[in-house]
Design goal:
2 copies of one chain form a homodimer.
Chain A (H helix, E strand, L loop, with lengths): L2 E5 L3 H12 L3 E5 L3 H19 L9 H5 L2 E3 L3 H5 L4 E4 L5 H14 L5 E4 L7 H4 L8 E6 L8 E6 L5 H13 L3 E4 L9 H17 L5 H16 L4 H6 L6 H19 L7 H14 L5 H28 L7
Parallel strand pairs in A: 1-2, 1-4, 2-3, 4-5, 5-6, 7-8
Antiparallel strand pairs in A: 6-7
Helix pairs in contact in A: 1-2
GO molecular function (chains A, B): L-gulonate 3-dehydrogenase activity; NAD+ binding
EC number (chains A, B): 1.1.1.45
Keywords (chains A, B): Cytoplasm, NAD, Oxidoreductase, Phosphoprotein
Chain lengths: 322, 322
């Protein structure tokens, strides 16, 4: 039986636990703070109950799924017998370095260690370790029990077979992995988000529209297509013969815009302050927690709706429409 | 009774007709090509029938809604008695200039002319017209009967009251308007899309991942949140106290990425060719039409699901979750 060790039980580690549990794995949690382990277990129990309504809690009854979860009193105990380690420790390179030196001694032979880091390259905390070729970044989008994307990023010394093994594991638990060929700042997701945020802040700073209007441009416009097609498929379907025609027609326009956007700006205190003020009008500070639970409830419903609609659409080809 | 003239009945004009009709307006269509008028009427009839399943066809029976649609044999006939004109002519400035010179003579007093142009500033085809202060860009995202966002962009001489009037009209027909303060290349939507596409092509050109993996990063990751929150609200909810804290923590990382991304590149023929080849593997040329009908069917279902989920979420506040 496969047994997953989750090291670090904050928001990300807790959600990872849920992902592995509902896929049928045994999961053992460890966090240096005992309270964090207890909180994670409570989170998993509550989230599993919520997900049942969306058919996203896995095939087993909640009690049986929860029964596969255990809390380890020490890192040694968590790692012993693990077949995969998902490290979700705090995002500081000195913490990761120390942790990986310990993991390097403890981890059983051939076991892979994936890091949830959203920004640190694996090379920055695995160089010289005996286990280095079994270490890599396995970066989820928070929370992974609702958002399937996982970025798999090798360090220069990660083994090709390790990349394969983790890809297979991620698919098996229902996540959607992409594999970067090499380390790059921000990986793919945060680079795309960076491009979007850079222009979003630029539009507000230049007084073109409000932050709420930028948000509407995405949530009532671009985001409706990006929800189920990426940027490439979106434009591929927007010209009769596909993306090459689209680029012939609109490439020059985009090239012109790209030049205007090649203007990296720091987000000034006054700009951030203005956006913060606008956001606090929409959602006051004391309403943020409630808004987050609204977000997670909506996200679960949308992900469930997406699965249902895509399955129905795949099951009913409409040749007549073509 | 309000009567909308749609001038230019391609894909965009036809969808606009549907938007106004289902909102209860009378609509008169004109296109210089008689076949285009007939095609538009056929499209409206078919789409209304499809939308009924999603409760997006308006309150009236289909026959009654269709009964408010008429085809004009001439531009004069279309414009006479119109209370608003939505111009959706081909995207070439010389065509727009000539059309607007004619509209300038024909349009009744006080009637506003909104242009569907996705890229031409209104100042480029309305300068010097008697009606210039009543002309502006009212840019939909295609197709407007499924995607509610509308960009309202004034020329330097568009009247403030005209902006107000069109905003009110767009809200009344169920669209979601944003108002730019001034003309800017690409408006808001295509500037945001430009930022996204620029980085998407850069990642593929640099061999970091495939085009399909970029698409997955959005459709299985970022796009799930952007579907119902924009980029600002997304990061606002990703730090305990909101966006200012998020920017304090991650601003330096994004600033570093922005510098790497300040590298405007033309999309080379070989790069576009590689992405085109990858896309044609996923969807062969002969399958594009079928894939477009898949897209529109999915889009309608997702927009309907979004309305339902957001309405339910708003109706069931969960103070206990906060």
């Amino acid at each position: 039986m496969s047994r997953i060790a989750i090291v670090g039980c904050g928001v990300v580690g807790s959600s990872w636990a849920l992902v592995f549990l509902r896929a049928g794995f045994e999961v053992v949690l460890f966090d240096a703070a005992p309270a964090a382990r207890e909180n994670a277990a409570a989170f998993v129990r509550a989230a599993l109950a919520d997900l049942r309504d969306q058919s996203m809690a896995g095939p087993d009854p909640v009690e049986q799924t929860i029964g596969r979860l255990s809390l380890a009193g020490s890192l040694e105990e968590a790692i012993a017998g693990a077949t995969y380690v998902q490290e979700s420790a705090p995002e500081r390179v000195e913490i990761k370095r120390e942790l990986y030196r310990t993991l390097d001694r403890l981890v059983p032979p051939n076991v892979v260690i994936g890091s949830s880091t959203s920004g640190l390259p694996a090379s920055s905390f695995t160089e010289g370790l005996a286990t280095a070729r079994r270490c890599l970044v396995v970066h989820p989008i928070n929370p992974p029990h609702l958002i399937p994307l996982v970025e798999i990023v090798p360090s220069p010394w990660t083994g090709a077979s390790v990349m394969e093994e983790v890809t297979t594991l991620m698919r098996r638990i229902g996540q959607s992995p992409i594999r970067l060929t090499r380390e790059i700042n921000g990986f793919v997701v945060n680079r795309l988000q960076s491009a979007m945020l850079g222009e979003a802040f630029r539009l507000v700073e230049d007084g073109i529209c409000t932050a709420a209007e930028v948000d509407a441009a995405v949530s009532n416009g671009l985001g409706l297509r990006w929800f189920f097609m990426g940027p490439f498929e979106t434009i591929d379907l927007n010209a009769p013969t596909g993306i090459a025609e689209y680029c012939r027609n609109l490439g020059p326009m985009y090239q012109g815009l790209a030049k205007e956007q090649a203007d990296p700006r720091a987000w000034s205190a006054s700009l951030v302050g203005a956006v913060e003020a606008e956001r606090r009008q929409a959602t006051p500070a004391e309403g943020l927690a409630l808004r987050r639970s609204w977000r997670d409830r909506c996200l679960a419903a949308f992900v469930a709706a997406k699965r249902r609609v895509l399955a129905e659409a795949a099951a009913t080809p409409t040749e007549k429409d073509a």
